[in-house]
Specification:
Distance between the termini: 46 Å
Low-confidence stretches: none
Largest sheet: 2 strands, antiparallel
Shape: globular
Radius of gyration: 22 Å
Order of helices and strands: HHHEEHHHHHHHHHHHHHHHHH
Number of domains: 1
Number of helices: 20
Mean pLDDT: 85
Strand order of the largest sheet: 1-2
Length: 502
């Protein structure tokens, strides 16, 4: 007869699970309230969501304090991993989510926000992304990935336009394919090492001197393809413009930030130990993927006639730019990745929020898309404040000093030079210059062309809701005054990344 196993609560270290449980409890609370009394005003669900995210944020602050004192924390049978990467990425996930939620207090025409299921799914999605970054267990990463993805598919479809259903189906199909690749790659790595924990996989492969390199190649190729879909890396990017176009502008902006930071962290944990072990073919493949993604996405963005699709290709290019940090694999590059993505979060969410206020219920005859360039022609004459703010975001995305993203690009290119990737640094700088063309194209339309007659859609910030003005205000302030916070923010990020061993 087997003797019972005694497990103490202290050994489980349940505090490591608290940040992920907060949004799950909040989502269940929203569903229970709807069951008890349906048709509540959406403001109730928004307040509950913000309260839950605030509690989540406080748990993260506590985890950050404990990590600063004691280093990396393990918990719940050692499947939860709280280190610097997890804490910083969770801060980005929760903070970006707290900025997104108030956008639901907008015009009633966006009917998806009237459903309590929207907010419950949104909180489940946040919990899934947090599980992804707070573990090195391939099974738990998969659970978090699918939890977040399944919720996100539904959130896209709830926008209830023809393109939204098409976008949700495309995203679901590509997501299912990526999940299959991930599962197969994980199976190969488990067969080789007998473990599903990334640190243990690295130890076993190093101890065996990568004797089974052909099988390692197979497993890593499948994992690369999986994360290529999630990060929109060329050639796995094809779903991105269509899904962004079919989603609401606000959700598209959110999708360009939060799912990708979660995928970046997992990719960093998984691929960097292989690069440090001098697995040359992986370095070559990543190098090609980074250069192709930056360059091709910029070329495709230049020829777009719709601003939202242009920003979609722009986000692909930025993802390729940031993916270079994983290729370089130094503490400086990893710190630059988080700095870049924090600054990108302000600017890109602000850009998509500006599209949000110009969205039309119905297109007028002859209007091919919701956000074509002609719609913004002469905007400085009809809405000078909106034109100035949008121009500010475009200049920041282009990397012009002294705006926010210039500093992210500067540190990223600097890390490439320091890491010995001088040619890559030159290609990154060249792509930044190319990207300036299509960002300036929108500015030219807004400031140097006359308004197009017949185009509907009010793009005036003054007519936006208070919540939308607040979000745009936060993004504008962050974009302009980021330079003041660069040094302390970079020191904070670097200390957490370095103490995590990356």
């Amino acid at each position: 007869m087997l003797s019972p196993i005694n497990i103490s609560m202290e050994s489980l270290n349940l505090m490591t699970l608290a940040p992920m449980l907060a949004p799950v409890v909040g989502a269940l609370l929203i569903l229970i309230i709807d069951l008890l009394k349906a048709n509540q005003d959406k403001s109730l669900y928004i307040m509950i969501s913000l309260l839950v995210l605030g509690i989540d944020f406080s748990f993260l602050l506590e985890s950050a304090g404990v990590f600063s004192q004691n280093g990396t924390l393990m918990g719940v049978f050692d499947v939860m991993l709280i280190d610097g990467l997890a804490i910083i990425s969770e801060f980005i996930i929760v903070a970006a989510s707290m900025l997104f939620i108030p956008l639901a207090l907008t015009s009633k025409r966006f009917h998806e926000f009237s459903y309590p299921e929207f907010f419950a799914l949104f909180l489940f999605m946040i919990s899934g992304f947090q599980f992804m970054v707070a573990t090195d267990n391939l099974i738990l990463i998969f659970v978090g990935l699918e939890t977040a993805s399944l919720a996100l598919y539904t959130l896209i479809a709830m926008h209830n336009r023809d393109k939204s259903f098409e976008a949700a189906v495309k995203y679901f199909t590509m997501g299912a394919l990526a999940a299959g690749f991930y599962a197969f790659g994980s199976m190969v790595l488990y067969a080789l090492t007998g473990s599903v924990e990334i640190n243990q996989i690295a130890s076993v492969l190093n101890a065996n001197a990568y004797v089974d390199m052909p099988f390692v190649l197979i497993g890593v190729v499948f994992m690369l393809a999986s994360f290529g879909f999630k990060l929109s890396i060329v050639p796995f990017h094809t779903w991105t413009p269509d899904v962004y176009e079919g989603s609401s502008a606000a959700l598209a902006g959110y999708m360009s930030i939060v799912p990708k930071i979660a995928a970046f962290v997992v990719a960093m944990r998984l691929f960097e130990f292989l690069i440090h072990s001098n697995v040359v073919w992986l370095e070559v493949v990543l190098y090609i993927a980074v250069v192709l993604t930056m360059t091709m996405a910029n070329i495709w963005a230049i020829v777009q006639s719709d601003v939202k699709r242009m920003l979609a290709y722009s986000s692909i290019s930025h993802a390729g730019f940031v993916m270079a940090a994983i290729l370089i694999g130094t503490t400086q590059s990893n710190s630059a990745l988080f700095l870049y993505w924090i600054l990108f979060s302000f600017t890109n969410l602000g850009s998509f929020s500006m599209l949000w206020i110009s969205r039309q219920k119905n297109l007028i005859p002859g209007q091919g898309s919701d956000h074509n360039y002609e719609k913004f022609a002469g905007l400085v004459k009809t809405a000078p404040l909106a034109a100035s703010i949008m121009a500010l975001f475009m200049l920041s995305l282009a990397g012009l000093p002294p705006f926010a993203l210039f500093w992210g690009k500067l540190y990223m290119i600097s890390s490439a030079v320091t890491g010995g990737y001088t040619v890559l640094a030159f290609i990154m700088a060249l792509n930044s210059a190319i990207a300036g063309y299509y960002y300036l194209k929108l500015i030219v339309y807004m400031f140097m062309k006359d308004p197009e007659p017949g185009y509907a859609g009010d793009v005036s910030v003054s007519n936006a809701t208070v919540s939308l003005k607040t979000i745009i205000g936060f993004a504008t302030i962050g974009t302009i005054f980021a330079v003041v916070a660069i040094n302390p923010l970079l020191e904070f990020i670097t200390s957490f990344v370095y103490n995590s061993g990356y």
